[in-house]
Amino acid sequence: MLAVILNNTLNFGVEEIDFINATGRILKETIVADRDFPPFDRVSMDGIAIAAAVFSNGQRTFKIEGIQAAGSEQLQLKNSENCIEAMTGAILPKGCDVVIPYELLTIEDGKAQVNLDEIKYFQNIHPKGFDKKVGDVLIAENTKISPAEIGVLATVGKSTVKVGKQPKVMIVSTGNELVDVTETPAEHQIRKSNVYTLVSLLDKLQIKADTAHILDDKQVLKSKIEAFLNDYDVLLFSGAVSKGKFDFIPEVLSELGVEKLFHQVKQRPGKPFWFGVKSQVTEPNRNDNSVTACNQQNKVVFAFPGNPVSTFVNCLKYFHPWYYKSADLNVENQQAILAEDFYFKPSVTYFLQVKLTQKEGVLLATPVSGKGSGDLANLIAADAFLELPDDRTDFKKGECFPILLYR
Predict the structure, then answer these.
(1) What global pTM score does this model have?
(2) Which of 15, 237, 311, 370 could form a disulfide with 378 if both were Cys (CB 3.0 to 4.6 A apart)?
């Protein structure tokens, strides 16, 4: 079913934003060096700059001509038998090709005595262009921007940067039994939690989703969902997708022209998952009496089961990969080793809650017992889901399986 979802990705477009706000976003341009890195022969240790040839001729004491500070214009060594004090980050003075650190010097009366017998040419100097040359690619397109990339953007003067637009997402919870976080539920009610779990899971992708709650009334559901389909790229539902008498979501979506691509997945938890797409044709743009062609932009609907663990695992397993592919972001699939034997009888894909530990460079997954897909609190005791295949029931210690991390 994941393949079906990945065949229905969206193109969100591109926007330009301030570079300092780009952390977590997907880069949509190639960043190249606007100058050599470093842009000059750079002093890498505090000390004195000298001419190597003079040292090779046996001279060990050098008269100090001046100080080359970081950020100051380049000095010229007037007498090759002298030296210039040079600070870390400064441009190397002209006529110098070696830096001797202060720790190896004795300085008295304006003279520096070098306390070593051998040096290397360009010692303690970071050569111009050693890291990157002007025009070299520094950050490839479709890179997820981290603080490391922010520093590079600043270095090359990219005050604004092109990134992928984020999808407009509406997260919808349903059910008469749900009340808000701030309310005290009656005996027959519970507080809403799934919607906030989904908000948090999307926030990790830098997606700021809107939320709504709709009671179990078919006509109200239909009216509000119709508006959401017009205003949003993606709808995420939690609940009302099973076979209960008030599970109206599949029926309502069908009546609104959303094509069901599948309903139910051979897995536990999260079996009743519903996925569909609606083709949306936008109005043509009219400008100066010219008419452009209509644009077709699909709307994608993920309708997750209402049990909290089901919602949680399905968002990680299906929505996150869908977003990564839509954004052209390559994300490496992670794996972990089962730390003890495990048995699960039904022939379905099973998402086992596990606690992770590192041992000798290996990621181990220890099963965490729970009380089913409604046991929301049990998620706190685990770190991830281990994805066990549906072709067998016995899983042995030491076997490696895909993992869905959430910590």
Answers:
(1) 0.85
(2) 370
